[in-house]
Specification:
Helix content: 25-40%
Number of helices: 8
CATH architecture: 3-Layer(aba) Sandwich
Number of strands: 6
CATH superfamily: Pyruvate-ferredoxin oxidoreductase, PFOR, domain III
CATH class: Alpha Beta
Largest sheet: 6 strands, mixed
Radius of gyration: 16 Å
Shape: globular
CATH topology: Pyruvate-ferredoxin Oxidoreductase, domain 3
Order of helices and strands: EHEEEHEHHEHHHH
């Protein structure tokens, strides 16, 4: 399949987003998937602030044996960006031939809100010219259609899951284990929507 990420001998994933977007839940789901597959896994929130609006970055590394949770520059097999500017900010971590998945959403950082800086134009288009193995989707609209705007994280997980060699049911089990029961149906629908997105 075009755009398929290699099988998990060692898989390094960088998740970049903004506080309140659910990046930490996404990393927990990925960690659960890795454990279900019997892989060694290391998860580390290494940058940013978890309050709403701050930049948050999480590393997830899985494989036969993982010695460090840190993903170095040019070493990420997948960069999962929950916002356009975060994709641009962390793109240097994507390895040659790696996959970039972007939630095509704009969230103005504080310097833009205060008028000190301008939000860059045409981010996704510029990235795609340099990194052709990029998928961008309006995960926010999809999440809203599923019943909860906060489910963008699981929409993006669904899209990412489709490009791995890990079975769909493993992902669904990990979601069941990590999402509170009252939000489970919305998140299962969000995963399916991302997984089945063109």
């Amino acid at each position: 399949m075009k755009g398929m990420v290699k099988t998990v001998s060692n898989l390094s994933i960088l998740i970049a987003g903004v506080g309140g977007q659910g990046t930490l839940l996404a990393s927990r789901i990925l960690g659960s998937v890795a454990m279900k597959k019997g892989y060694d896994v290391k998860v580390s929130e290494v940058h940013g602030m978890s309050q709403r609006g701050g930049s948050v970055v999480t590393y997830v590394r899985m494989g036969e044996k993982v010695h460090s949770p840190i993903v170095e520059k040019r070493m990420a097999d997948i960069v999962l960006a929950f916002e356009r500017l975060e994709a641009l900010r962390w793109i240097d971590y994507l390895k040659d031939g790696g996959k970039l998945i972007i939630n095509d959403q704009r969230i103005n950082p504080m310097p833009v809100i205060m008028g000190k800086e301008k939000y860059p134009e045409n981010i996704v288009e510029k990235i795609k010219r340099v990194f052709p193995n990029t998928q961008a989707m309006d995960a926010l609209s999809i999440a809203r259609a599923c019943g909860n705007a906060r489910a963008i994280n699981v929409v993006l997980i669904g899209l990412m899951a489709k490009s791995t060699a890990i079975e769909k049911e493993v992902w669904l089990e990990a979601i069941r284990e990590n999402v509170p029961p009252k939000y489970l149906e919305v998140n299962m629908n969000a995963f399916e929507a991302g997984y089945n997105a063109v």
